[in-house]
Amino acid sequence: QAPESFPPLRNEAAVRILRGRMKGIQGHCNSCYMDAALFSLFSCTSVLDSMLFKPFPLCDRNVQSILRDEIVNPLRKSGFVSARSMMHLREQLTEKGRCSSFTNAEKDPEEFLNLIMHQILGIEPLLRLQSGGRKEQDCYCYQIFMDKQEDLVVPDVQQLVEHSFLSSNLKLVEIPSCFIIQMPRFGKEYKMFSKIIPSLELDITDLLLDSPRECCLCGDVATLECS
Predict the structure, then answer these.
(1) How far apart are CA 195 and CA 154, in angstroms?
(2) Cα 79 from chain centroid?
(3) Residue 156: exposure state from Cβ atoms within 10 A (0-12, 13-18, ≥19)
(4) Where is the Peptidase C19 ubiquitin carboxyl-terminal hydrolase domain (predicted)?
(5) Which of 111, 108, 186 minimizes the C-alpha distance to 147?
């Protein structure tokens, strides 16, 4: 029998199903990096639902079914995923990734995404970046790196992405189908920002390589860019 499929939660349904006690993905044994990543990727958006259904060339169908039937569908149906289901996935990642610490240690979200998207499901990279006119690089997510900015006390995501791209001299080679962004953090002892305001829309016009843009002085197509 084909498993049930539930669409991502939107608007009033998202508030009704996801708000309250015993909602979200239950944490256990340093799973917060994975809980937050999966909640962000699947609870309210379908942009990566191909991960759940599409038979990619290198796809591990067992991991795919656990992700779909034990995590994403329960999250969208009832708003809750148990730590037991998450541990089932973590045990599979430990086996496939040849790394025993996936079941008990805190990991970097990028390491988790690279493992499940590249090695286990065989998905093509989501982002193409170019740094300073050099060789292009492919990746699955972008982690914000930046120096402390005194004028950014409570920044939004738009400001952080622009500052990070500027300081690293980066450009997007093309418009990404999905732009996964990892916020800046420095472990348990130091946080660069106590709060970050989510930008509900992200303007990537100035981040695109060779994208035609308007001159801020005359209004014609710009030929020069001042950082």
Answers:
(1) 6
(2) 19
(3) middle
(4) 24-204
(5) 186
What predicted TM-score, i.e. pTM, was given to this entire model? Answer: 0.87
Residue 187 has pLDDT above 80, yes or no: no
Show the 3-state SS of 50-62.
HHHHCCCCCCCHH
Measure the CA–CA gap between 212 and 225, rounded to whole angstroms.
11
In the block, residue with structure tokens 């259904």: 53
What mean pLDDT is reported for the chain? 90
**Strands of the chain, DSSP E:** 24-25, 80-81, 127-131, 136-139, 142-143, 170-172, 181-182
Provide the 10 A C-beta neighbour count for residue 131. Answer: 13
Over 50: is that where the pLDDT of 1 sits? no
Q: Round to whole Å and give the CA distance between 80 and 73.
A: 10
CA dist., res. 144 & res. 164, Å (int): 6
Give the β-pairing of 127-131 and 142-143: unpaired
Q: Residue 199 and residue 7: Cα distance in Å, rounded?
A: 23
